[in-house]
Amino acid sequence: MSIFPKISLRPEVENYLKESFVNKEIVTALGKQEAERKFETLLKHLSHPPSFTTVRVNTHLASVQHVKNLLLDELQKFNGLSVPILQHPDLQDVLLIPVIGPRKNIKKQQCEAIVGAQCGNAVLRGAHVYAPGIVSASKFMKAGDVISVYSDIKGKCKKGAREFDGTKVFLGNGISELSRKEIFNGLPELKGMGIRMTEPVYLSPSFDNVLPRYLFLQNLPSALVTHVLNPQPGEKILDLCAAPGGKTTHIAALMHDQGEVIALDKIFSKVEKIKQNALLLGLNSIRAFCFDGTKAVKLDMVEDTEGEPPFLPESFDRILLDAPCSGMGQRPNMACTWSLKELASYQPLQRKLFTAAVQLLKPEGVLVYSTCTITLAENEEQVAWALTKFPCLQLQPQMKGRLQNSLGNIHTQNIYLKEMGSFPLTSMG
């Protein structure tokens, strides 16, 4: 599997993670050699894309079977391949499309283009290369040339370079839509397609503008979170850190658009994106506000007549706190340049948001805390802190029986620690 190196981390960060995951309890249970092997496997998996592309069906507008049939027609247009679509056995609104790869028999070309790390990550998930992502190109590259695309995972390539001998990872071959001169002509930055990928190392369909009203591209752990929240029609639910709205719209769909879903984010452009997604998916129960979630509790007890933030304590039946985090569970990610200080910087903010969420939750309500990172400090340690800090909270199992088994079988890349921590808690009042 590992045609890419394991994720590149600063030594201090890798040592920090290793101390967490190869701890006394794990070593006692597995032995030191096995514990270290599992940790190394985790680092290798982080640099590779998931085994499935996951899409969530907007069940508010169409049935899963209808959308599955439409998607089959769309996928037949993709590289002439017959790609199966699997319905998740327990998350009925989730469809899984197997990712083909890594493909090791792709012939590398003399003509090369280097793209930035984020662009490279997107290519591994099925994207083409857009012009702003191209950092370097061979001297005589012309439109129509077949070229090999590489990712500059450490950010060392200079913009406009004619060649690059630093650390680079092969992503596959494509056809250039632009010449080198057009890309680096000194004019305002180009937009649009730069390289159309024809032989990617990982073959995965691009979902750019594919059935946009019926499908939402969403990683499996992200789709799972809303099912753990289990929203019910008629409830008042808060998504405390909501952008770009994937989980917000999922909440509204599972409620059959009956009830009230409040979405908060403190960046205006992201709030506009939530509103756009809600409109596109035909969901009317969502109200999105540009507001800092740490300040969402109304300090005075004056009656709330506007229905806008801040809110009175005990206002919500269920709350999703999908907290800002270090994002180290996002895949693929071949390099992370963060320092240990940066990695540890999210915990105080997460605790402020946790405190606000607990105050806003009704007695017997449900609070789900989730992240897209792998650090214990942002997951298990935060939940342990919350259970001590707030005696009214009680930890609940996030999944049971066949659901847990099926996730283990299908989402095999979560072999050491969850890509995404998801922790449901209830208020005992």
Features:
429 residues; alpha/beta; six-stranded mixed beta sheet; 17 strands
Structure description:
With 429 residues, the protein is of the alpha/beta class. The protein has 13 helices and 17 strands. The strands form 3 sheets. A 7-stranded mixed β-sheet has the order 13-12-11-14-15-17-16, sandwiched between helices. Helix 2 (24-30) packs across helix 3 and helix 7 (220-229) packs across helix 8.
The count of DSSP E runs of length 2 or more, i.e. the number of strands, is: 17
Q: What portion of residues belong to β-strands?
A: 15-25%
| Mean pLDDT metric | 89
Poorly predicted ranges (pLDDT <50, ≥5 residues)? 400-420
Q: Compute the CA-based radius of gyration.
A: 23 Å
Summing up helix and strand content along with how strands pair, one would put the structural category as alpha/beta
Helix fraction, binned, reads 25-40%
Distance between the termini: 49 Å
Q: Can you count the helices?
A: 13
Order of helices and strands: HHHEHEEEHEEEEHEEHEHEHEEHHEHEHE
Principal-axes shape call: globular
Largest sheet: 7 strands, mixed
Widest beta sheet: strand line-up: 13-12-11-14-15-17-16
SSE arrangement:
Layout: H1 11-21, H2 24-30, H3 32-46, E1 52-57, H4 64-75, E2 86-87, E3 94-98, E4 112-116, H5 117-124, E5 129-130, E6 134-137, E7 146-152, E8 169-176, H6 180-183, E9 193-200, E10 215-217, H7 220-229, E11 236-239, H8 246-254, E12 260-265, H9 268-280, E13 286-290, E14 316-322, H10 340-343, H11 347-360, E15 361-370, H12 380-389, E16 393-395, H13 401-410, E17 422-427
Parallel strand pairs: 4-7, 11-12, 11-14, 12-13, 14-15
Antiparallel strand pairs: 1-3, 1-10, 2-3, 4-6, 5-9, 7-8, 8-9, 15-17, 16-17
Helix pairs in contact: 2-3, 7-8
